Amino acid sequence: MPIIKLAVLTLFYKLLSAVVQPIADKNIISLLDQIGDIFKIFLAILSALSVMLIIGTTLVLKISNSGMMYR
């Protein structure tokens, strides 16, 4: 769920900076674009951590099951 939320926020801020471009100041447009980039970085970090958590959990389960197999 947080991954979807970050993806939606990223798209929202990128779209908002594109829509506001004709009527807003250049600094505000730059700010909205940078906020979208920050959410994109958060999305990449969260995705990488999720993959590492799944791999780590899989390794721990594999190691603990192999110990039970030798009994």
Total DSSP helices:
2
Structural class assignment: mainly alpha
Distance between the termini: 41 Å
Helix content: over 70%
Instruction: Calculate Rg over CA atoms.
Output: 20 Å
- In terms of per-residue confidence, which ranges show pLDDT below 50 for 5 or more consecutive residues? none
Count of extended strands: 0
Nearest-integer average pLDDT: 88
Summarize the structure.
The protein contains two helices and no strands. The two termini are 41 Å apart.
Overview of the molecule:
Helices cover 89% and strands 0% of the residues. The chain is built from 2 helices and no strands. Helix 1 packs antiparallel against helix 2 (26-69). The longest helix has 44 residues, at 26-69. The chain has helices spanning 2-20, 26-69. The two termini are 41 Å apart. The chain is mainly α and 71 residues long. The model has no long low-confidence stretch (mean pLDDT 88). It has one domain.
List the helices and strands and how they pair.
Layout: H1 2-20, H2 26-69
Helix pairs in contact: 1-2
Name its key features.
71 residues; mainly alpha; 2 helices; rod-shaped
